[in-house]
Amino acid sequence: MTTSQPRDSDGVVIALARAPHGLGGYLGFRSTSFAKFDDLIEALTEYRAVVVVAAYPIVVRALTKTLTSKYDDPTVIAIDEGGSFVTVLAGAHHGGEQLAVRIANFLGATPILTTASRVSDRIALDQAPLIKLDRVKAELQARLNHGVGLTIVNPTMLALPQSVLALEHQGPDPVKLVISDRVCDQELGDARGVLPTLTVGVGCSSDASCDEVRELIATTLEETGLDPAAVDRVATIERRVHHRALSDLHQEIVGFTPEQLDTVPIPTPSEVVHHSVGTRSVAEAAALLASGDKAELVVAKVKSQKVTVAVARRNRLRGSLTVVGIGPGSLDLLTLRALGALRSAQYLVGFKRYLELLEPVIERGQVVKPYAIGQETERVLESISLASDGNRVALVTSGDPAVYAMAQLVIERLPINLDVRIVPGVTAAYAASAATGAIVGHDHVMISLSDLLTPWSAIEARVEAAAQADFVIALYNPRSKQRTWQLEKALAIIGQYRRSTTPVLIASRVERPGASTSITTLEEFDIEVVDMETIVIVGASTTAFNQGYLYTPRGYQGAR
Asked: Residue 324 burial by CB count (10 A; 0-12/13-18/19+): exposed, middle or buried?
C-alpha cells in the first residue's frame, strides 16, 4: 500500500515574554521572547497553541486582531507576570483547559477555567471527535449545561468510539444527537454530528484532470445524500497515487497494487479494466480495501468519460497507531512531536516503568495499559487491536522506537488498513555520550548482547567485526541476572584489537532517578557494576579526554 497525504504540522506551543524558567522544558515546548506587538500577532496566526506571559490587556488587544472562529483559533493561555494566574482565553475545548491546569501545577498558580461546561461539570461537545455539527453548537451546549440529557441516535449502526458514547447521559428533555454521514438523517434528531467514515475510491485515465475528478465526486455525494464532510480519504490504484488529478484534491491518498485490489469481491468487475491495469476493479475495490473489515459499498461505481468513483463506509472510526520514542526518561528530552502524539492518544500502551515516567504528562481521560517486561508481543498486539477498533493509540518505548524497541515488531504485524507513525526519540547511547562529552562523535555501532532473540554466534561475529574496524561500540542489554557471561566475553574480544587503556563509559539509568556515569578502561572494567539498566560504550583507538570530557575526534589522525 502506498500513501500520499498533505503535510501534517505538529503544532508548536511557545512561551512569549518573560517565560518562567524551566516551563518550556517541562512541557516540551519552545520558549521565544517577543519585543514587538507584531511578534505576538504573528505567533497567534502561526502556531496551534500560544502561552503568553504578559499583561492581559496586551493579549486581548492582539486577540481582537486575530480571532476568526472557535474552530480555527489557536489555544491561547495567558499568565500574569507574577505567575499567580493561568487563564484560558481561547481554545478551551481543544486542549486549552488541560494545558492551563498543567502549567498552573508547574507554577503553583491558580488555573482560571470559565467554560460553561467546566463550571456545570458537563462534557463539552467540542471534545468529541465530531467534524461537523449541523445545528448551532452553542445552543445545544447551553441546554446540556442547564441539565438536560443527551441521547445518541445511530441510524447507520456505526461502532462509535468511547469519546462519542461518553456524551450520552440521562436527564430530562434530552437532546437527540444523530451520528450519521447521511444529510437526510438530520431530521431524526436535534442535531447531526459527522464522523469521518467514508472512503472515495477513484479510477481515472492518465489524461484525466483534477476538476473532472472533483466534479464527479461532488455530484456523486450530492445525488446519494452523503455528506462531503464525512469523506476521510481517497483510495486508488498505486500507479495513480501521485497523479495530479488526485494529488491536487488535497486529500489523503491511499494506493494499492493490482494484486491487492483483485482480492476484493466487488459487484461490478470489468475485464476491460483488468486487461488495462491488471485488476478487475479500481474504484470499488480500492474504496472497500481502504475501509477495512466489515466495510460496505454505499455507492457502486459511477462513471464519467475519464473518471470512475465509488464510495465505501467503514463501520467504525479509523484508528491510528503511533509508536512513540520517549527518550531516556527525563521529560525535557521528549521531542515536541512525541509530546503531541502522547497528548492526542486515547490509549497509552507500554512497559509499566516507561508509563510511570510519563505520569506528569498523562491527561485525564486517557487510558493507560501497562505491561510487564518481556511482554513485547502482547503490547504490540493490543496496540494494533485498539487502533483497528478506531482508537488513537500511542505505543510507548524508551529511547528510539527503532533501536532495540517496538517499531520493527509493529511493522511486521501491521494489518493492511491501519495507519502507523513512528516518532523518533533520543537513544540511550546518545544520552549517555552527552552526559560525559561526545564518545560517539565519530563512526560508531550499536550491538545488543542479548542472545534471547539473536544467536550468540552472530553477536560474537558482529562484536569482532566492529572491534577490528575500530568503531566506537555501544553495548545494549549488556548483563542481566540470567545472562552473566556475555559482556565479559564481548570485552575480551574487543580487547584483542584495542589497547588495555582504551576508555570505556558505563552509564546507568541515564536521565532517570538514580542516574550515574563512570569512566574506566578495558583493563580496569568491573563487570559487577553493570545491569540491564546500564549501557556500556567502548571507545575507539582515537577516543581521548580534554578538559575532563570524553570524546572521539572527527578525522582519522591516529586511526589504524
From this structure: buried
Compute the distance between CA of residue 490 and CA of residue 497 in angstroms, rounded to an integer: 12
C-alpha span between 445 and 155 (Å, rounded): 57
Q: Nearest to residue 296, comparing CAs of 282, 278, 280, 310?
A: 310
For 288, the grid coordinates are 472497500
Q: Which of 77, 75, 82 is nearest to 111 (CA)?
A: 77
Distance CA 396, CA 322 (A): 8
- Within the chain, how many helices (H) and strands (E) appear? 19, 29
Query: For residue 292, is it left (φ>0), alpha (ψ between -120 and 50) or beta?
Result: left
Rounded to a whole number of angstroms, the distance between the first and last alpha carbons of the chain is 46
What does the alpha-carbon distance between residue 208 and residue 364 come to, in Å, rounded to a whole number?
Answer: 49
**318: which strand partners?**
none
Q: Which cell numbers in the block locate residue 251?
A: 486529500
What confidence score (pLDDT) does residue 384 get?
A: 94
| Spatial distance between the Cα atoms of 560 and 557, rounded to a whole number of angstroms | 9
For residue 58, what are the CA distances in angstroms to 39, 75, 396?
12, 16, 40
- Rounded CA gap, 88 and 52, in Å? 10
Residue ranges of alpha helices (H) inside 157-233 are: 162-165, 210-224
Does pTM top 0.90 for this prediction?
Answer: no
pLDDT digits (tens, 9 = 90+) for 362-413: 876 789 999 998 899 999 999 999 998 888 899 999 999 999 999 999 999 9
